[in-house]
Design brief:
A six-stranded parallel beta sheet has the order 4-2-1-5-8-9, with helices on both faces. Strands 3-7-6 form a three-stranded antiparallel beta sheet, with no helix packed on it. The radius of gyration is 16 Å and the shape is globular. Helix content is 33%, strand content 16%. The structure holds fructose -6-phosphate. The site of fructose -6-phosphate (F6R) has 14 residues, from loops.
């Protein structure tokens, strides 16, 4: 996590107007903690940065503590002084095209952070998402909703839909870093490394990107 944060810090120092693509969920939180520390202790300056988050649940208020908006504000944006005018989410736009246009106008995503779901999803591109998919409204699978049940207090309370960047949108980022930490991700890591390119395992659609890395910890590669 430190190495990932260090890479982001180097990018932001070299290009103060860098465009970051960010993920929510548990996996990147250690990276955000480290970025917050670098801001506090080493004056890492985010004031010129634009961020674009991958996804958000549908039908959830931005200030609902279970929303990705809220998690990002609490764990990163408010700490490093990024105002809402510089942080963007795909559900804030009337259409996916407008979100894509905003990414384009900002200069394109320099650095995209991703986690991977139990079913291989990236963002909320669930199995079956085509390589050509763009920002859009999607239905969440049962597996994804089960994994979010803890946060929502039961699977029945998890939204059924979300808005997500598409696979093609993600693939346009100049650098892509996929994070998988902990023993719960061992199966995901194995399959992401070895799967042939197959929309049924969306993380495999990143193979062939010119600058993609899968970043894991020991627990995520230990065989059970
Ligand atoms: C979140 C996102 C999802 C998560 C994935 C893993 O913005 O896009 O694809 O990265 O579901 O979630 P965690 O990190 O909670 O295991």
């Amino acid at each position: 996590m430190r190495a990932v944060a260090a890479e982001i810090a180097a990018l932001v120092r070299a290009h103060p107007q860098a465009v970051l693509g960010l993920a929510s969920g548990d996996t990147p939180m250690g990276v955000y903690r480290e970025l917050a520390r670098l801001h506090r202790e080493e004056a890492l300056d985010f004031s010129g940065v634009h961020t674009f988050n991958l996804d958000e649940y549908s039908g959830i208020a931005v200030d609902d503590p279970r929303s990705f908006h809220s998690a990002m504000r609490t764990h990163l944006f408010d700490i490093v002084g990024l105002p809402p005018s510089r942080t963007h989410f795909p559900d804030e736009w009337a259409t996916g095209d407008e979100f894509e246009q905003a990414i384009h106008s900002a200069g394109g995503i320099d650095y995209q952070l991703l986690g991977v779901g139990r079913n291989g999803h990236i963002g909320f591109n669930e199995p079956g998402s085509p390589m050509t998919s763009r920002t859009r409204h999607v239905a969440l699978t049962e597996v994804t909703r089960e994994d979010a049940a803890r946060i929502f207090g039961g699977v029945d309370r998890v939204p059924t839909h979300a808005v997500t960047m598409g696979v093609a949108t993600i693939r346009e980022a100049r650098r892509v870093r996929v994070l998988a930490f902990g023993p719960g991700k061992a199966g995901v890591v194995l399959r992401t490394r070895s799967a042939p390119v197959d929309p049924q395992w969306p993380a495999s659609l990143l193979h062939g990107h010119p600058d993609v890395q899968l970043i894991v910890d020991q627990a995520a590669v230990d065989r059970p």
